Amino acid sequence: MAIKPTLSKGTRDYAPLEVVKRKYLFQLIEEVFQKYGFQPLETPAVENLTTLTGKYGNEGDKLLFHIRSNRSLKESNPQIAEALKDIPTGFIPESSDRGLRYDLTVPMARFVAMNWEKLPMPFKRYQIQPVWRGDRPQRGRYQEFYQCDVDIVGSNSLFNEVELIQIYEEVFTRLGFQDFTIRFNHRKVLNELAKAWGFESVFSSVLISMDKIDKIGISGFASELQEMEDLSSTTALDLVNLLSADVSEQWNILNQVMGDCEGWKEVNYLIQKVGNSHAQFDISLARGLDYYTGTVFEVVTHEVQMGSLGGGGRYDNLTEVFGLKNMSGVGVSFGAERILDCMEELNLFPTQLTPSKTKLLFAAFDEETFEQCSSLLFEMRKLQVPSELYPEFGKLKKAMKYADSKQIPWVAILGESELKEQKISVKNMISGEQNIISWNELFQLS
Amino acid sequence: MAIKPTLSKGTRDYAPLEVVKRKYLFQLIEEVFQKYGFQPLETPAVENLTTLTGKYGNEGDKLLFHIRSNRSLKESNPQIAEALKDIPTGFIPESSDRGLRYDLTVPMARFVAMNWEKLPMPFKRYQIQPVWRGDRPQRGRYQEFYQCDVDIVGSNSLFNEVELIQIYEEVFTRLGFQDFTIRFNHRKVLNELAKAWGFESVFSSVLISMDKIDKIGISGFASELQEMEDLSSTTALDLVNLLSADVSEQWNILNQVMGDCEGWKEVNYLIQKVGNSHAQFDISLARGLDYYTGTVFEVVTHEVQMGSLGGGGRYDNLTEVFGLKNMSGVGVSFGAERILDCMEELNLFPTQLTPSKTKLLFAAFDEETFEQCSSLLFEMRKLQVPSELYPEFGKLKKAMKYADSKQIPWVAILGESELKEQKISVKNMISGEQNIISWNELFQLS
């Protein structure tokens, strides 16, 4: 009985050309990470639930994938094992103690808590691996997808923030993005503002509204402020004025309010260090409520309609939940799936990306020429030329179709007459041009 | 309340140097695969259980990891959702309909069955991804580990087998293995032998015993044969003589028995094509009982005590279970974890593999030199030199320790006096030599 082949919901196969495009992105990102001194880390897909639960809020906990093995149940209790021995696989319920990785930050924190004595400090690591979330799948949202994270653990220096902004700048520029912004803000500046303008009691609501200005506009923001009972109309007006001002006006207003508060000093250090880049201070950037405690970042492109292409920030006490105190962390993430979608839309992939590396396909007319082709093939490979021999002889049409499908640029066809003269017919699959050349000339194609 | 950080059983973290070593292996293997015209494929970790179950025998089914998301249960039935709303995450049993990938062959067969009309045929693909098995963990055996597979689907040509042997030859040679053997055999030769010598009724038992000769020796093999009731003592003696003969004697014996049987012709084609390599025909190689239908392969090293480092073979009707008939497949797998263990033991990793790519670490005495260091750093990075600035100034001892830990070969230290003269002190961390050079000379270090 044949089974209908299906993909599990929210997952995808990556066919050869897709793998090649994804690797192009990941390798470029990785090269930049390494240039900035970051080291690779990989953690297992499967983590104990004690590591995962309670770290992502109630909503996150609901999206965790839980895992069990049949063996673990059967081994846990011989009586249960006996009772269940005829129950088909897949119908045995069990409470699970393991789950699939939900992000790359918590596994890193676990790793640091377990290994910090052996690690260089600060620990600068990058990690490019898939994560799993039981979200309802929809366009652009998957249950299995890649994250690319880069973090510094164990350093309070603001210079780390400078480097993270430079990494964003270098990666997006090298990928070919032109019109993008690296927005940054500081949670301590927002806190100071709330204190100075007296909206601490509705702080969360104001931040939530601010985060939505992209979608609801300044007028939407104003009306949401109006509905907040504990917010004075003066403060509401001040906020609307601040948020609708341009960057330099905003800076002037804030400079008066902030005085020499720590967060404001840090913001000004960053402005000075990364001023001549795509980075921009943006008081409206909040990035959620609970997680970050210092700087926050977000990258947006203006060339394509798409949410943020990455984000991050600083979080104190990253590893405290695993028993290791006073470890500050700062990091950013690249939204790989969205970046790939944008690159597709903006045609940013190099044209030389092809679904195979094969440069030359041999095709033979008969058994004798097939044997000679195989010798020529082995020579080409000794010269390190990626090459193939179509494995059936006398099927030239199929061989041509094969070369087309793999975007192989050259096809070399050996017939009886060429064989006698130690020559071979070579066709350029792009121009369509065809020439008969000697075997020696063929080897020089490498 | 702090949680004790733990790894899930049978899983590992890969610290930076381990990632670097693993990537060295995977990239070398990948480069060879590409040179032979193979294309990359990646499939999701999560597959529907309909795809996975029943493909790996009863034992395999027991080792499958099953997956469920809390959301899927709660959404499946509002009444259940209501009843369970106060039950903590992780305590809700559910019958699962998904699982984790157990190998790379079944997902590939599923992919081919779903996409064959769009694929080049034959489809030559490689796949390097983790798989999961609920085996009891022990030394060298993990629940999450990598496989490296290379297969050709949709071609009956024996030339594919030639290429697979060449791939084994090239990979293991380039890795630095010297004393290894690529054993090969043919199921049809074994079948023919059973027919000719009349041991078809105990065929499976003979094969199982033969597969164990490595462990039990020829005498162990002989005594196992004696215990088989349906095996004549003449045949038992013939088998013992055959298996204890050297390679050329074996060939002579078999050549008389086989006549012009198809499997024997194929074996001789392979011997002719790959004679001058580490490949060796070996009549004792069976590789399990059910799966393979043609050639079988296995790689062993004689330099380290270790099981096989890879294996594979030809299987007819690879995709039939997914409704696509007459697709023959042939492929081999590299046992990545074992190969890595061997390479560690034989010191086969290039000495230039280091846990970071950083060539130069800047360290500053005070705030002023820190700022100048950051400018020098940005210059070095413009020259594409992987480099870092230790993020705290005045901590030279810590900076040195940091450079040691990351195996950074050069440390550049900027003090007040050097700053004035536009010079910098550069220390070679390998030789210990230290020199004061100009900033211009520094840039030439790239």
Description:
The structure is a homodimer of 446-residue chains. Chain A is α+β, with helices and mostly antiparallel strands. The first copy, chain A, has three domains: 16-50 and 102-346, Bira Bifunctional Protein, Domain 2 (BirA Bifunctional Protein, domain 2, 2-Layer Sandwich), CATH 3.30.930; 65-100, no CATH class; 360-443, Rossmann fold (3-Layer(aba) Sandwich), CATH 3.40.50.800. Chain A has helices at 16-35, 49-52, 57-63, 70-76, 78-84, 105-115, 159-175, 187-197, 203-211, 213-226, 233-244, 247-258, 262-274, 336-345, 367-382, 396-405, 416-420, 439-444; strands at residues 39-40, 46-48, 65-69, 98-100, 123-132, 144-153, 180-186, 279-281, 295-301, 310-315, 329-334, 360-364, 387-389, 410-414, 423-428, 434-438. In chain A, the strands form three sheets. Chain A has an eight-stranded mixed β-sheet with strand order 1-5-6-11-10-9-7-8. In chain A, strands 13-12-14-15-16 form a five-stranded mixed β-sheet, with helices on both faces. In chain A, strand 9 and strand 10 (310-315) form a beta hairpin. In chain A, helix 1 (16-35) packs antiparallel against helix 7, helix 8 (187-197) crosses helix 13 and helix 10 (213-226) runs antiparallel to helix 11. The longest helix of chain A has 20 residues, at 16-35. Chains A and B meet through helix 1, strand 1, strand 2, helix 2 and helix 3 of A and helix 1, strand 1, strand 2, helix 2 and helix 3 of B.
